[in-house]
Amino acid sequence: MAKMNKKRIKEMNLDEKEKKLVEYKTELAYQRALLAAGNTSESPGKIRSIKKTIARLNTFINIDNKKQA
Fold first, then answer.
1. Is residue 1 part of a domain?
2. Global pTM value
3. Is it the case that residue 12 has pLDDT exceeding 90?
4. Which long-range contacts (CB under 8 A, 24 or more apart) does 42-46 make?
């Protein structure tokens, strides 16, 4: 999965953001399982970029929720 930038996240609606969040969390769990099994990732910074994207999505989801309230 590629890193998502802010502009692309802002264009999504809340449901799309939540779906992407689930996808990225699943990918993170998969990458961590590979790491725990002793396999090397194709990209050493992949876990870090996934974690940053998850944080970015959570931030924009929280902003959307505050706007609706």
1. no
2. 0.89
3. yes
4. none
